Amino acid sequence: MLGFLSARQAGLDDPLRFRRAESTRRNHPDVHKYSVETVQWYPHDTGMFTSSSFDKTLKVWDTNTLQTADVFNFEETVYSHHMSPVATKHCLVAVGTRGPKVQLCDLKSGSCSHILQGHRQEILSVSWSPRYEYILATASADSRVKLWDVRRASGCLITLDQHNGKKSQAVESANTAHNGKVNGLCFTSDGLHLLTVGTDDRMRLWNSSNGENTLVNYGKVCNDSRKGLKFTVSCGCSSEFVFVPYGSTIAVYTIYSGEQITMLKGHYKSVDCCVFQSNFQELYSGSRDCNILAWVPSLYEAVPEDDETTTKSQLNPAFEDAWSSSDEDG
């Protein structure tokens, strides 16, 4: 199992080989009691993974035995957690809960090492920078997004301002990232920009070094999620894309122009999450219809002939609007 997962992660094995995964049954003694909100592999190998839940716990799992190696208990419901994909000098897990404080749990010591204070309401999403191992972004129901350097005593580096400082501090929306709850965060693959989504039906692109709102217009991005919205970005494409759950579909936008490219249709109920796998250039989506779909870009697209009665295929090098579910490809 582990050998296959390692080969799959490295891009050495065909995704269609993976027909069945191990799972913990409901009567397993270590299973979560309520909804599982986040699952993440340990970034450096597949021998360990983490899960967090509305049951107020973060669990660290041994992949070989499917037993818990450690459990972190919290006073509030857990909405989100994240481990840094690039950290070599720390093993911190950032955790967002129904409380306004961001918790940092140390896998080495097995305890919560410290707390980041500054938000006023629940923390709906957390994400470490893929570029700098000590930089963390957090999103809250208080309409704010904060960037932190976890080494600093004061912690907070920047509070993102949708108006770029051009409105008076007396204005209610000053120093807010959205005009509603901010329930999703995602860095671009190079870590130079940060995407956020909010219940104001907007998505914004920020310069992650100075906190500037780039003012890219994505139009209306429907978002009625009452908890964290897990969206993702591409890596290694000729144009970089962002994939956002949108009801039972997934909206695809070009990151830097804001253009909506297509809507991916295949699920029958609401899509809760999606993640991009760069080695195979694949997108995976999970839905309340109890299905996980793998989406792959088609190399060729149909082009009508001059007489409009026949079609031919032409190479689609940008893969701009030819995404399809691998289930449809047989």
From TrEMBL:
Under the heading Pfam families, the entry gives: WD40
What keywords were assigned to this record?
Chromosome, DNA damage, DNA repair, Nucleus, Phosphoprotein, Repeat, Ubl conjugation pathway, WD repeat
Please tell me whether the keyword Ion transport is annotated for this protein. Answer: no
Q: Which ranges does the UniProt record give for the WD repeats?
A: 29-71, 116-151, 175-216, 264-295
Domain of life the protein comes from: Eukaryota
Report the GO terms under cellular component: chromosome; Cul4A-RING E3 ubiquitin ligase complex; nuclear matrix; nucleotide-excision repair complex
| Main localization (coarse) | nucleus
Which biological process terms from the Gene Ontology are attached to this UniProt entry?
proteasome-mediated ubiquitin-dependent protein catabolic process; protein polyubiquitination; response to UV; transcription-coupled nucleotide-excision repair
Segments carrying the region annotation (Disordered) are 307-330
Name its pathway. Answer: Protein modification; protein ubiquitination
Q: Where in the cell is it found?
A: Chromosome; Nucleus matrix
Its function, per the record, reads: Substrate-recognition component of the CSA complex, a DCX (DDB1-CUL4-X-box) E3 ubiquitin-protein ligase complex, involved in transcription-coupled nucleotide excision repair (TC-NER), a process during which RNA polymerase II-blocking lesions are rapidly removed from the transcribed strand of active genes. Following recruitment to lesion-stalled RNA polymerase II (Pol II), the CSA complex mediates ubiquitination of Pol II subunit POLR2A/RPB1 at 'Lys-1268', a critical TC-NER checkpoint, governing RNA Pol II stability and initiating DNA damage excision by TFIIH recruitment.
Note the subunit structure: Part of the CSA complex (also named DCX(ERCC8) complex), a DCX E3 ubiquitin-protein ligase complex containing ERCC8, RBX1, DDB1 and CUL4A; the CSA complex interacts with RNA polymerase II; upon UV irradiation it interacts with the COP9 signalosome and preferentially with the hyperphosphorylated form of RNA polymerase II. Interacts with ERCC6/CSB (via CIM motif); promoting recruitment to lesion-stalled RNA polymerase II (Pol II). Interacts with KIAA1530/UVSSA. Interacts with a subunit of RNA polymerase II TFIIH.
Name it: DNA excision repair protein ERCC-8
Q: Where does this protein come from, organism-wise?
A: Equus asinus
